[in-house]
Amino acid sequence: xxxxxxxEKKLAEFKCxxxxxxxxxxxxxxxxxxxxxxxxxxxxxxxxxxxxEVAFGYKGLKILLYYNAGNLSTLFRIKYTSKVNENxxxxxxxxxxSKIRKIIPPGFCTSTDDFVSLLEKEVNFKPFxxxxxxxxxxxxxxxxxxxxxxxxxxxxxxxxxxxHERLQTFLMxxxxxxxxxxxxxxxxxxxxxxxxxxxxxQGEGHGAQLFETVHRYYMSSPTVLDITAEDPSENYVKLRxxxxxxxxxxxxxxxxxxxxxxxxxEMVTEAQQKLKINKQHTRRVYEILRLRATDxxxxxxxxxxxxxxxxxxxxxxxxxxxxLAKMRRCLRPEELTNQLNQIDLNMQHEQLEESFQQLVxxxxxxxxxxxxx
Length: 373
Ligand SMILES: CC(C)(COP(=O)(O)OP(=O)(O)OC[C@H]1O[C@@H](n2cnc3c(N)ncnc32)[C@H](O)[C@@H]1OP(=O)(O)O)[C@@H](O)C(=O)NCCC(=O)NCCS
Fold this sequence. Notes:
Layout: H1 2-12, E1 15-17, H2 18-21, E2 22-27, E3 39-40, H3 46-49, E4 54-56, E5 58-59, E6 62-68, E7 74-79, E8 82-83, H4 86-89, H5 96-101, H6 112-121, E9 130-139, E10 144-152, H7 160-174, H8 206-219, H9 234-248, H10 256-260, H11 265-275, H12 279-293, H13 299-313, H14 315-330, H15 338-372
Parallel strand pairs: 2-6
Antiparallel strand pairs: 1-4, 2-3, 5-8, 6-7, 9-10
Bound molecules: coenzyme A.
């Protein structure tokens, strides 16, 4: 046993967390290659390395995936300080290289010199497609405003298909349930499938700029009725709330007087017709704007708000209760204990209050951001 655990201990040293081992970088100048401050790591690597996000067989594993910040030509290198030896250790190291090769398109560089010479050649890179929006963001470090542009491109733009293949790998690293998009699937154009701002640029307002630009782009298309995302992440919902509230706040249907009268068909119709916002999203916008118009220090106003929001939140619980009532009718008493019902009801009150408090705190954050915009 002692021998086994010593062996286990030894082998454990050859396990590397792949979220740490994978090192990503957007390179503009050759000196960026040696600058650790520009390196960032994935949030997820389970789709490539399994749920444990571990690669076995190496000590000090580094999987370098460096990209030219313009057209994303890629440098892929694997480094490690030591590796298990099949003959000596009787175990085989994971084939990290082939796992990565499966998710990056061919044509990448394996030598730093080749990559650097490409950097120089591709210095005049221009984004693909049509320019939709230009804006600037103040950069503290540089002490100046930096201009950014948002382009719209599709597979008919020469070179974009190959660029998109290189770009897609990032989805694996930053979207938990990401899957590669089949660009030949016609339906691709009908869904806003995934949205990603790379970590070095997060928290600077680019997400909001991008969301608003995409929304305005589809808003102006006569064939689009609704703009929505499938299975949105928490951060995405925050971003959407902020942008939709910003777009809606000046609509006449959201005047403070109308907000205090409750959610109305007028709001649904106006938001749908003018901004292509669906009923569910309009309801959230209403709740956020009503919170702004409500004096939460006033017991009556605050009670009115709480009841109105909770009435919506309770919808799914009511459904559950109806199901429970149905079960009660169908099951014998010994199959459905009173105790079970009781637990369930207590849970509902607590959960409802918790959901309400969480929601209000999320809404307050949106309003704070709105006040700063
Ligand atoms: C979700 C995502 C797109 C947001 O992009 P982003 O560019 O970071 O978004 P923004 O910068 O507009 O807003 C993010 C936060 O930064 C804050 N912020 C924006 N500009 C800022 C500035 N100049 N200074 C300080 N903070 C700022 C915002 O207030 C917001 O904070 P909050 O969440 O506390 O309200 C991005 O985090 C991402 O790609 N995540 C991984 C993939 C993902 O989840 N995609 C969505 C589902 S497909």
